[in-house]
Write a structure and sequence with these properties.
By secondary structure, the chain is an alpha/beta fold. The chain has 11 helices and 10 strands. The protein is globular, with a radius of gyration of 20 Å.
Length: 279
């Protein structure tokens, strides 16, 4: 299935810190429609509403959220009007602790969302909530674009992080249009399990299935050499000159990833190439 509806969410008037330009590039490359949500947050605490805070104060907080959404939209409109792609733009307002809910409905009807890295400097706290809501609640593939990286519609080289998980397979299915257009696709397998279903031929079934879809790929089996899987994946992506990394997102719980770390959390903090994820 081709990407015909793309989605991006803006949480700040600083358009240069968003993934809007990358979403435009991808929409142009795929001849897709781009939907843009400008998200303003009511940063009042939920407890204040429950305790009966003055209605004037509550109204002022909501108005500020609307004003922020409108400010974001005013900054984004000139960029979209000169983009040469088909687009829609809308405002959304949400409580700060529930930012993701405002984007779930749109995510369910998007072929892919395009977002910036949700962790790091100059990042809004709600960016991670938006990404997690799209991945987990909307079941939407998400392309995360790091600062100073570009997300070409047809990257020359794509790397797949394969660990036999349902999340990784869903990401690969979602990425098929990109994989079919790539000149080379590398299936990277790190320390394949000795008792896995593919133990005699790690990645072989995946490579056969992809070949029937016109994807020409090779399998590269590696050891993490005592380090983290995420470190090895990131290093290999740079070594192969990958323009896109395809991987599953949150194979472990979000809480475990946040506390103990994991490949998803690492990539969302440190990726240097665009990453297409699906949960």
């Amino acid at each position: 299935m081709a990407f015909k509806t793309l989605l991006t969410v803006l949480t700040s008037p600083r358009i240069e810190a968003s993934a809007l330009e990358d979403a435009i590039v991808l929409a142009r490359g795929y001849d897709a429609h781009l939907e843009v949500i400008c998200l303003g947050l009511d940063r009042s605490h939920a407890a204040e509403y429950q305790l009966g805070v003055n209605a004037t104060v509550m109204h002022a907080a909501i108005e500020q959220a609307h004003e922020k959404a409108e400010k974001i939209q005013s900054a984004a409109r000139p960029v979209l009007e000169n983009s040469g792609v088909r687009w829609d733009i809308s405002d959304a307002v949400s409580m700060a602790g529930d930012a993701g809910r405002a984007v779930v409905h749109a995510g369910r009807f998007a072929d892919m969302a395009v977002l910036p890295l949700p962790y790091g400097e100059d990042v809004q706290s709600e960016d991670s909530a938006v990404l997690e809501a799209l991945l987990i609640d909307a079941h939407c593939p998400v392309c995360v674009v790091p600062p100073k990286a570009t997300a070409p519609a047809t990257p020359e080289t794509v790397m797949i992080a394969w660990n036999e998980s349902p999340e990784a397979l869903r990401a690969i299915r979602a990425a098929l249009p990109v994989l079919q257009s790539a000149a080379s696709v590398h299936i990277a397998i790190i320390d394949p399990p000795a008792h896995g279903t593919d133990r005699s031929d790690p990645g072989g079934a995946l490579a056969t299935w992809l070949s029937r879809h016109g994807v020409h790929c090779d399998i590269q089996i590696m050891s993490r050499s005592g380090g983290k899987v995420s470190d090895r994946l990131a290093q290999h992506a740079l070594e192969t000159g990958a323009g896109l990394l395809v991987m599953g997102g949150y194979g472990h719980s979000r809480f475990r990833e946040a506390v103990l770390g994991g490949a998803t959390r690492y990539m969302l903090e440190n990726a240097r190439v665009p990453v297409l994820m699906m949960h």
